[in-house]
Amino acid sequence: MLGANRAVFLVGIPIVLILVLIAYAVVESANGEREEQAWIVHTYQVIDSLHTIMGDALDAETGQRGYLLTRKTSYLKPYEYARTRFDRDIHQFQALTRDNPDEQRRAQSLRAMLAERFRILDAALNTGAPEAATMPSVVSLLDQGKGMMDATREIIEMGLGEERRLLAQRIAARRAQEAAEILSAILITLIALIVLLIAAVLLVRNNIRLAISEALRARQARILQATLDNIRDGIVVFDDDNKLAAFNEIFFRLMDFPTKLAVMGAALDAFREVDEKFSRDVVDGDLAVRDYARLERGERNLDVYKAPIPREGFLIAASDVTARVRAEHTIRQSQKMEAIGHLTGGMAHDFNNLLQIIGANLDLLMKGDADPSKRAARLQAAISAVERGGRLTAQLLAFARRQALDPLTLNLGRLVTEMTDLLRRTLGERVEVEAAVAGGLWNTLVDRSQVENAILNLAINSRDAMPEGGKLTVEVANAFLDDTYARAHAEVEAGQYVMLAVSDTGAGMTPEVIARAFDPFFTTKSEGKGTGLGLSQVFGFVKQSGGHVKIYSEPGEGTTVKLYLPRSKKAQEQTPALADLPAAGGSETILVVEDDEGVRAAVADMLQELGYTVERAENAQGALDVLASNTRIDLLFTDVVMPGPINTRDMARRAQQMVPGLRVLFTSGYTQNAIVHNGRLDEGVALLSKPYRKDDLARKLRSMLDKKDKAPPRPDAQSTSRRYKVLVVEDVALIRMTTVDMVSEVGHDTLEAATGPEALDVLAKNPDVDVLLTDLGLPGMSGSMLIQKARALRPDIAVIIASGYSTETRPGEEPPADARYLPKPFDLSQMQRVFESLRT
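Now predict its structure.
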């Protein structure tokens, strides 16, 4: 189309030029013809002027002679008239011939001759006798006048001849001009015809091309529409004016939009009004990036995205991914079951091996072998198997992010420097160990023992990947993971991290191995060389700490594992590791509460060997009875989950009320009940995870018993002018117990419930409850729904939300605007401030 227009433009220029040339030629020809015609007219005027002069002379002579012959005065009128015209006619002739010197000389001669002639005529007329015509003097004057008249006539004839010659020349020039004009007109006409013919050819060709182009565009439009109508995705296109420019019916069917919008030129605002989520998530989305929005339409799942069309508008596409979503769900379930089977098989394999070691050695001990060295060796083998089992469960819990972390603010550079000698001794002489610590390193909040285990696990894997030796580099540096990286890794939150990288020069990994490296019990080592839980433990620990793990490796190029741990702006905490404390006993009295008789007896024996006095109870009520008997108890050592009507939380709270300053140490084989947020122990909770050895128990007890009393500050009397009755709702028993203790510590009465229905029942039975303190993530009925139902039952009840997760809720379950928030983990001062805010 553009080429055709250019061709028309190029043809039009010569046509315009030719038309201008024709107009110029016509004007010039007209001017030339007018000029030639003017000269011809001028020549005729000169001839007429000469004839007039000649007529003046003849009229004067004829009048003179008639008068002389007849003496009639009537003959004098022509004479007198000619005499008066003489000067004027001569002057007119001179004016007409002023550009002709010859004619000017003739005019002077004629003026002189005619003047003389009139003088002679006047002399003849002055003879007054009647017979004057015959008088010799008059006859002489007449003869003389005749000669002058002949000379005048000759001069005039010469002038006329000259003018006739000029007239002939000028008529010839005019005819030549006319011929030239005719020839020019013919040439210009021919040129114009040729140009017009060319223009006509170009226009015809242009029209043909235009028709072909229009037909092609119409065909392409039909193909495009047919394509749109036959693809599975729904498409709509809006132009720069936000008007509908193209669409297919599939889009309206997938999006459940009314068919009245399916017309060309429909306004985008009409689509906005139909679906608010579509408007918010798709229409008003960022055009810089192709963002997908997952929308649900009935049982359909749609991926809808908006993409810019440069300088033309934008398009919106909707793809039905219901089948894919269901297939992915099925695959995930299948993979989950496969992983569970793989995990179960791995656990069964390893635990059966451990049980075989323990059982075989115990059987041999049962036979009463008299050799003490063999008995000691068999006992040590059984103990080693138990330790391996403990490490195995710890690794599984780490992978599942269910281990109890005790994070501290650490400087990883100092930790890595301290571990360098240990790594050299562990890896052997064939492996060169180098530590690189960046300057200005940030602190991070992590569990020290878990970081050390992670570094050892990664270092041992690197050593196994370098059987012939190599170089191991442990690097620590600051890192910032930006939004682009976070978008590429859905589990990563953009922000500041401390990066711990362990690199080796070993065999490297294939992409398939990298994809499964963190799976539990997955290993490329030979049988008996590894459990396949090392990397999975590292992965679980880092994720539970809020970090990120990334493996960079290529076959033959070595491997780098980078751990990104969240930055902490707090100062480094100088707390000695529990393993660094001496495994000493003591003389205090310890109350052991354990429902399993075998475990209770074993723990009591270990404590007695450490020198402690031991009191025993099989349940909470038994423990309270022991405390009520006025027996001095220094520490309560209890399992978290206990049978009976009194739960562990109630028992511990009552025990501390009965014995002020009583320390409580919890133990559990599965630490989820001691987890508050991201696996971190709640404030003030001491936990010893099962299984544990005597030395572990000894160190933990001494760390608690030797600790000086640090009673939390109690609020003064003025700040506790009102004592609330608080209902604490928390499904995790240990968290609920510590929360109740903290509420009591700040001076308020408490009731408790584990679930929403139980809390509503407590509210119905206790109309004096002032405050509802609840978690959001409750089983069954959510915390938000509980708040709504509680407000319906008690509109004046105050609400405090204690949660370690986002406060985002489902539509219709938003917390009330006057709710207070207590983010986990919280301490006693935060608890006190939130209750003070209720009074204000």
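The CA atoms of residues 47 and 160 lie 6 Å apart.
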